[in-house]
Amino acid sequence: MDCQEEQLVNTICDLYEKISKLESLKPSEDVNILFSQLVSTCIPPNPNIDVTKMCDTVQETRQKLIKICGEAEGHLEHHFSSILTSFEDNPLHHLNIFPYYNNYIKLGKLEYDLLTQNLNGLVPRNVAFIGSGPLPLTSIVLASSHLKDTVFHNFDIDPSANSLASLLVSSDPDISQRMFFHTVDIMNVTESLKSFDVVFLAALVGMNKEDKVRVIEHLQKHMAPGAVLMLRSAHGPRAFLYPIVEPCDLQGFEVLSIYHPTDDVINSVVISKKLPVVSNGSIVGGPSCLLMPCNCSKIHAIMNKKKKMMIEELEASREEQFS
């Protein structure tokens, strides 16, 4: 690392020390200030920073920080979901009170565009979101703005999260009829996974590499061949906030594309498709580990020439939209 990158990592580690000393990670002035500083430190794109190659001490700090961020994010979503469900009219009309709502709008549009390109225009009928939490904004944004006839099944292990999320959408005459919540460990869900055209895996389901890969292997075993798996990842300094998903983690899937945002959307997006299984039980093909190193302004994918041109046109239009 050069001096500037070393200074950045030291700043992140210092913030971790301050955050780890907080009595509670529930929303408060101190919590909000420190996490705002952390996010603003990690967001500027710096593809030269590879957290996987840093020393063991930094790696240990990163793992602890990801866990703390996950806990704080859960408290934040629970807090705002509770506020939203207190509105007498439709709570979904007030989602903009959530401080990161605009990020979810951008992320939802990005993921919808990627889905559209890689499904060749076909609209998924049934979508699963694993790790939906008390404020299932991805499902809500996609259902209300992009996939207006699609049924969404949200899975979370926390019953209180699902209770709040269900109450949140219950007043909406359309969304409430197309959104369902299941309180279950996804590792105990098997046959029903075959019914989904698209499965989203939240960034904080599997906070370390081993747990993440274990969940992916379970999905590969039970998803339908040809079904799409959408994952959240992280790149550069943003990997101090969320786990990284690499193409080689996706055994049994074809990686279609990877996108690393450069704006205030923190998560990278990985879209993959479950490979077919032949009669002897072996998988046709394997994970696409030949993806070009993704810079922060292009979509790189292993695809035929036509698909590649479509993705490049998509990215050009997105850059024009947000410029």
TrEMBL record:
Record keywords, A-Z: S-adenosyl-L-methionine, Transferase
Broad class of enzyme this protein falls into: transferase
MF (Gene Ontology): nicotianamine synthase activity
Catalyzed chemical reaction(s): 3 S-adenosyl-L-methionine = nicotianamine + 3 S-methyl-5'-thioadenosine + 3 H(+)
SUPFAM superfamilies according to UniProt: S-adenosyl-L-methionine-dependent methyltransferases (SSF53335)
EC number(s) from the headed UniProt entry: 2.5.1.43
Gene3D superfamilies in UniProt: Vaccinia Virus protein VP39 (3.40.50.150)
Protein family membership: Belongs to the nicotianamine synthase (NAS)-like family.
PANTHER family documented for this protein: NICOTIANAMINE SYNTHASE 3 (PTHR32266:SF12)
Name of this chain's protein: Nicotianamine synthase
